[in-house]
Amino acid sequence: MKSTDYQPVVIPRSYSKIMTYQERDYHIFVSIPADPPPESGFPVIYLLDGNSVFATMTEAIRIQSRGPERTGVCPAIVVGIGYPTDGPFHPARFFDYTYEVPVSELPGNPRGSEWPQMGGAEQFLTFLEEELKPSIESDFPIDRTQQAIFGHSLGGLFVLHVLLSRPHAFQRYIAGSPSIHWNESVLLAKESQLPTLLTDDLNVHALLTIGELENDGRFLVKEKSLAMIERLSSMGKGQINASFKEFADETHSSVLPVLISHGLKFATKKTAR
């Protein structure tokens, strides 16, 4: 192949920039619909691990939103949050998506080495709320009543952290294969305080999912997710509508495309009681 014969692939109507916060660089990817924006603005999906799945989600929504009456997927802005890397993942995600817990609570590293530094979830959430979201809202037509956050694995764990500590931050929470076992003690502590945050005007929807083939009993993700859903659904006056979905024949990694397809319908559906 002669490299001069080919040009880089460009995803239509997609843009990127670098944002720096607390001496950490984030690669921000944004895709916008071709449709004219509704008067209230577009729904927006904040997507964790943007390096790995931004293109997948962008193309999925570009195709499916052409016929929302058939697919249930409406045009939406996708904001992928990644890092300056060509790889699908960056070690910084371990810091950004977690709280610090005793080493005894962490699973063993299959490579036999120590895990990267952890404990930056609160700092990362502050970046989302005080830097990224205001920047996106000033640059694009956003419907602030239709904001979703989407994460998988450690990203799904972070989604739960946000739901339990700042439930008003988003209206839709999508936690795919959430690594509850990483920060379970922190999650339970935050969950115990959640009832004090459930104001009468709160109306959020949370979706926890898992691939059937990753439910192998090691980390009890399915059992822990179902137990959390039951507790969340019984809190307050029904301000949190929590549901669970298991995808047949999918592993921890292969589940991502079907999770994205299902998550798009969940994220762009108009919030209603």
TrEMBL record:
A Pfam family hit: Esterase
InterPro entries to which the protein is assigned, alphabetical: AB_hydrolase_fold, Esterase-like, Siderophore_Hydrolase_D
Keywords: Hydrolase
Recorded superkingdom: Bacteria
A single MF term (Gene Ontology): hydrolase activity, acting on ester bonds
Family label: Belongs to the esterase D family.
Protein name: Enterobactin esterase
